[in-house]
Amino acid sequence: MINHTVRTHRSAEEFPYEEHLAHKIARVAADPVEVPEETKEMIINRIIDNAAVSVASALRRPVTSARVMAQARPATTGGASVFGLPGKYAAEWAALANGTAVRELDFHDTFLAAEYSHPGDNIPPILAAAQQSGKGGRELIRGLATGYEIQVDLVRGICLHEHKIDHVAHLGPSAAAGIGTLLDLDVDTIYQAVGQALHTTTATRQSRKGLISSWKAFAPAFAGKMAIEAVDRAMRGEGAPAPIWEGEDGVIAWLLSGPDHEYTVPLPGEGEGKRAILDTYTKEHSAEYQSQAPIDLARRMGERLATDGRDLRDVESIVLHTSHHTHYVIGTGSNDPQKFDPAASRETLDHSIMYIFAVALEDRAWHHERSYAPERANRPETIELWRKICTVEDPEWTRRYHSTDPDEKAFGARAVITFRDGTVVEDELAVADAHPLGARPFAREQYIAKFRTLAEGIVPQAEQDRFLAAAENTENLSDLSELNIELGEDVLAKAPTIPGGLF
Fold first, then answer.
1. E strands along 277-432, which residues?
2. Which residues pair with 418 in a beta bridge?
3. Which of 5, 36, 67, 129 has the fewest Cβ atoms surrounding its Cβ within 10 A?
4. What are the sequence ranges of the domains in the chain?
């Protein structure tokens, strides 16, 4: 990997465009290097993972809305598949629909470093572009390897959230770069597409603050849609604001740390294989990633307390000692009263570690639907326990969160449960059970099991088998519509009725 220094340059300063970060990203995307076998295998895992969570979310209102919007744009030429439907639709709208399905339940892969991300968000737009252009599985894998690589590398080097910029600002450029690799575009075209994609996908983090709405699911899907449109424009010869990151009025100068700040972004050197996907991790539980280890910790502690005959109604307080991010984004450091509101949206509850820990402690389990059900959130004893929980930032957990040593990096917490009689029960967990270093790391078997579990009762067994066989054979596919899953009319009929829009 080569570390690149990225900073603001004045307009009058000599700054060759070959030195622009967007150009360096474009060169990585255009590099004809082969995809490592380990990367190929993990890409297949994530294709299966995305399909699993899309099945689970297919009948939810935001996903239904996105699907209906795509249905209003049938393809006239080419086209891409919309998850759950037969036929072909405009690729950018298929990407929006599929991206919304993937993100709705907050249940797919993650990478956390200077910034946070869900790199699996690259799959819907790159797959849609591949279907639109008639590409095969080999080209798709190459494109996805680039999408993951660029997003992970940007996340390693550039923090967005400290400036309240949403993390999808790294997704637009990564998806555009991935599509550039997929289509074997030249460096200059990819450079323009990356710049356009970044320019059109910078937004504030209010989408993940306060009363969180369905836009949380639409935001990355919209970034993927913008990436497809950016590539289309760039292929037609249209340019982008430049230098997009380093310009005097660019992203660093005005949206991030300002003209005096330097960032360091690592990128593969020429001929170096793209392996970033191997540093990412998926979710066993449908919740914000920083909740994964605390859910497993709460389940473990719940079992212990039950064995000891402890009654959770006797709890005086629960303090979660954790990282800066967990405390300020999904903990009490956020100062969001909605995180204690039983009537809050599902999107808000899955960003409340206090709610999540309380339910997982009581139930000694976690479910993507039952754990968020209104009747579950309004259970009186749960509300009482929930409001006894707080988080505090622990510098050691923050340090481990930012560690570059994979054996030390952690996203967990130490829980201190104090009972009214003065008894204190403590335990901690650094990484989730499903993490590569966890108690039950996810491998192909676990990805398939996750898909089977979420598809049960929604996707017929024969269709499950067909999809899994196609996914595991991705590299050899000539028809990428095989990676779509069609749902029966009886299943789709259970989706909510959506009010009419403009189209």
1. 315-322, 389-393, 413-419, 424-429
2. 317, 424
3. 5
4. 2-279, 289-429
